[in-house]
Queue: 4 jobs
Job 1
Amino acid sequence: MQRCRNHKIRNVLAELPKEQHGQTRNLMRAAWKVKTAEEGEKRLEQLARFLEREDESAARSLREGIQEMFTLQRLQIPESLHKCLATTNVIESPQSGVERRTDNVTRWRDAGMVQRWVASVWLQTMTSDPPWPR
């Protein structure tokens, strides 16, 4: 299982004062760029110890699921795929596209109509604004 790194950043930053956001975000991202899971975990643990001095809840949030943040390194997935696999955006982006395009529809005739709309809008979403870099 690979934890969504974007959500992890949001969760940790939500516990911190605004003036600590930039440095914390940069340190987390730097930890995820290392080659080995062990080195990345070590860096995030160092950050958690630093954060612990001022905000225990931020440190706790950072430590939660720390091993699952480095599944890509453990599986030796090529770095070129890290951007799309390290987040849940590959799933959430198409779903939000479907929601955005069907939000104004208020009267669905039957389940078949819903399925047809969702299928066609899903295809439109995937071809017009894919969640991965081209």
Note: Confidence is low (pLDDT under 50) at residues 130-134.
Job 2
Amino acid sequence: MRSEVKIVFGPGREVELVVDANEVLSFDAARAWLDEQFLKNGCEPIRGAGKVLIADKILGVAAAVGPAAFDDAAFALDYARAASGALSKALLRVDIPSRTLSY
């Protein structure tokens, strides 16, 4: 089985990532990677109360690094492994312009 992560940056600007199920990070490892990237890339909480959900981190990291970061195969693989592991979903769609995450 495999996991697929599709990141939409705008019309015609999409990144599709595929990762084998055995490469998906555990929930704790995925959360740690997303936390690190969220801070490293200067992401801001979406919600006024300051609470940051896992989905917010997945969206925030992709938005902060932009499509060029996904040209780096190692980063792209780590992102897909973390996003899939954090949500335990085999198919994710990260839509940056609409700030939505669906699975």
Note: The first strand starts at residue 2 and ends at 10.
Job 3
Amino acid sequence: MLKPQDHQRIAKAVAVAEAKTSGEIFCIVAGEVSKYREVPLAYAAAVALIAPPAALLLGLHPWTLSTLGNGWASAPDLGQAVSQALGAYAALQAILFAITAFIVAIPPIRRALTPRFLKLHRVKRTAYAHFASTGLSHVETRTGVLIFASLDDKQVELVADEAIHREVGDVAWDSAVAALVKGVKSRDPASGFVNAVEICGAALAEHFPPAGPHPDHGDGVVEL
């Protein structure tokens, strides 16, 4: 997802920013935070439930499939005709479900059809989980910042610790998110991360000056 030189650019931006503050900045770039397996199933169920009734409203009768086009009158009795019609209806639903699920499961199609609110929820949840796992939530000064981007989901999330919210407010974080979003949308995530890190670093330096060496978090950049 990132070229070696892009990784180095982001790591350098993190190092420069952290040299001016006691705050910690960590960047994570992911391809896709979830497989969204429920999405193909939801679309398949919707098509299987809606398409057959819609076909009936349009005058298409599934029971004609079971009698090779001879129509309702050719059935020996009403019970057999109803049974054939219900069987054809159920078979049609099963076929529609399978075909729709297969098509929607193709990654580019699934990504396009996945609701944005679901992507936002999964990205936010993943970002908070990584904020805890990286140890930023245990920084004594409560000044950890995680900058997270999911490139395939085209969603970003910035998680800042409580001390930062009290001192900095939302303006700097909104600007950092906007810079990262711009980079992701323009297919230049490295520049987006660098700009976001510089904005966060400036905000941290203003309110939280250096106070000794930083804990070892590597180079501050991780690809998932």
Note: Residues 44 and 97 are 5 Å apart (CA to CA).
Job 4
Amino acid sequence: MTLRIAVTGGVAALTAIGLAAVTACSSGSSSSSSSAPASTTSAAASSGASNPLGGAAASGTVVIGSANFPENELLAEVYALALQKKGVKVTTKLNIGAREVYYPQVKSGAITIIPEYNGTLLTVEADPTSTAKTTAEVDAALAAKLPSTLTVLNPAPAQDSDSITVTAATAAKFHLKSIADLKPYASGMVLGGPPEFKTRSDGIAGLKANYGLTFKSFDPLDTSGPITLSALTGGKVQAADVFTTTPQIVTDKLVSLADPKFNFAAQNVIPLIYKPALTPTISATLNEISAKLTTSALLQMDNAVITDKANYTTVAEGFLQSIGMG
């Protein structure tokens, strides 16, 4: 189980990195970037919680929400722009808060669509006992366990998940592409990560069980934040648990190793939908986005809005143009 079970996605810890050079732990909340698009909430959207037909959804308006961190706001903006281009009437309700705040709003129809992460959605809301790991397993479990008012569309290849990450120099020196490649070298390496990584089932224990890795030692740091990143780039640790859409992967030229044995459960970006409001246009549009949204593309967009302070709408529009949906 990943560290995102208390919030929605690894970049929750990155909001503060991009804005104030400090990180927020995954159990906390973080405010959105000042360059994020302004939240627009219609009166119908606000009243949806008391309307069994879904408030704004009942009046033909699609309300797209987001959690309170940059990546999720950016994905919501991508969804909103794409649907608007298809003639769908859209309002946005961004930076709502953590999952415990926005999830009930989607269930009631006050929010029509929100970008989610399939693994965390499954283990936090749908089935906390689930041991599903692969994308197919996680999505099948979601289909069986989500409430009747909710559905998900196709998952994107893009994942915001835990990863074992090394510097480009370390990857080149030892010819590392996957976690499995670490086996001959792990005994001489210090592994860094949040303190709980020492006892998590997908932490040290999982790496040993799935890949036969025994590291020289473990250095407890922070949650994919500046302490971990500094330790990795400075050589204090040679490998670390870093979220796959952390902007410093781009700026510090880090390498996230592939996880072919699914030590870390899938965390694919996936649209969560208030089912009564789903239309063929919504389904086709969002599935087209998901089909073309890769981890690399999401990482580049995160880096643009978090590190470079680019305008969210501009970045979202650029992505849609790059995949032929502009």
Note: The chain has 13 helices and ten strands.
